[in-house]
Amino acid sequence: MKPWAGGAWLPLLLAGVAAVAPALAQPVPPQIPRDGWKDCEYNDKPLACVDEQIPGGLRIRWKDGQAMTYREVSAKGKDANGSDRLRDRLGGLWRRELYVQGNITLTNEANGNRIFVPLRFPCKPPLKGEVGYCRY
Predict the structure, then answer these.
(1) Is the whole-model pTM more than 0.70?
(2) How far apart (Å, rounded) are the C-alpha atoms in residues 64 and 41?
């Protein structure tokens, strides 16, 4: 009879698994954005922002201290292209386009100003002593 057929290797294999198991059982700390700002753009120039979906609209807070609230226009809320129409608190009309990745673009119908808001936070490596938040 061969030793592996009689189960002689089984205790050795189990000992090897037990030695590896404690390393795998340690809890993984949560991975969260380091600073909470997304890599937004205003007229194709990078400017960090935070967006918040609110009932009937959207609020954007910019890292430079500015903020604006955009409310859906009541006339069905869609234009001929199927995009949402929003009005800012100053009266400007914006066309909101939602892309399949979840990114949002707002385009001002009067002056062509454009705002880009990504769905996700940027993937930045963690600083020393911090936990990163990108899993790839």
Answers:
(1) no
(2) 12
